[in-house]
Structures are given as structure tokens and as C-alpha cells.
Amino acid sequence: MTEAEVVIEIPFHDVDVMHVAWHGHYIKYLEIARCHLLDTIDYNYLQMKESGYSWPVIDVRVRYAQPLKFQQKVRVIAKVVEWENRLKINYMIKDAETGQRLTKASTVQVAVDMANEEMLFASPRVLLQKLGVDS
Predict the structure, then answer these.
(1) Sheet with 112-113, side-by-side order of all strands
(2) Residue 71 zone, left/alpha/beta (φ > 0; ψ -120 to 50; rest)
């Protein structure tokens, strides 16, 4: 499975008066990890566009187990778990120091042919090639 991780320090502008990260910012942390993951397979958003496909996120699920706090360093791990009909990525956010699991999440993206704006029911060959699973 393809996996990547980033370390993020929770900034002041992402927290509330209790110094806890607002729940909506978690999506941004997932996106940072997802972009790093896509870079590792040499298929980032610009390369997706060049290949003729857009990949909109159609589903996001987040399970908030523990809060993220101001100046806390967290590891956001992104892992491709499905690729045949859609691109599903699972995420784990852990405290960088202790390794404690703080949040689990997933995103689902589908390929859309940019020429006719139609969603594909199977992932295009270019994704399979980038993942090294093209047969």
C-alpha cells in the first residue's frame, strides 16, 4: 500500500479560546497529507489535470477521538486503501511525541473526465500506473 506522512504543528490561528483546533481545520491537515502522498506517487493535482482528469472529493469522514491543541506537533499519515473504482485514502493523526492516536479519517475521490465532465466508474489507467498496480 502507498503511504506518506507529514508533521504539522497546530498554529494559533487554527485554535479557539480553549487552544483546541477547530474541527473544520482537520480537513486542511488531511489535504496537506494527501498532497504529500500524491507527490510521492508522482500524480499530484497538476499532473492529474495534465492527464485529463479531475479528482473531486465526494466523501469525507472524520472521527475525533482526542483534541488537537495549540503548538502540538502531530503526524498525519495518509494511506491509499482503494483505487480500482475510486481513490480512497485513510488517515491517522497521532501525537508526534507520544504516538497516541488522536483522529481517524478517510476521503473518497472519483475520476472525472475533464473533456466531457463525466464521472468514471473505474479509475483511469494513469492512476493504476502511478500506484504500480497496472496489469
Answers:
(1) 53-54, 112-113, 118-119
(2) left
* Angstrom distance (rounded) from CA 89 to CA 59: 11
The answer to pTM > 0.90 is yes
SS3 of residue 117 by DSSP: coil
Place of cell 492527464: 51
Domain ranges of the chain: 3-131
Whether 10 and 19 have beta carbons less than 8 Å apart is answered as no
pLDDT digits (tens, 9 = 90+) for 11-36: 999 999 999 999 999 999 999 999 99
Cα–chain-centroid distance for residue 114?
Answer: 22
In the CATH scheme, what architecture does the domain 3-131 have? Roll (3.10)
* Per-position DSSP letters for 35-100, written without gaps between them: HHHHHHTT--HHHHHHTTEE--EEEEEEEE-S--BTT-EEEEEEEEEE-SSSEEEEEEEEETTT--
Q: Within 13 A of 7's CA, how many CA atoms are on the CB side?
A: 7
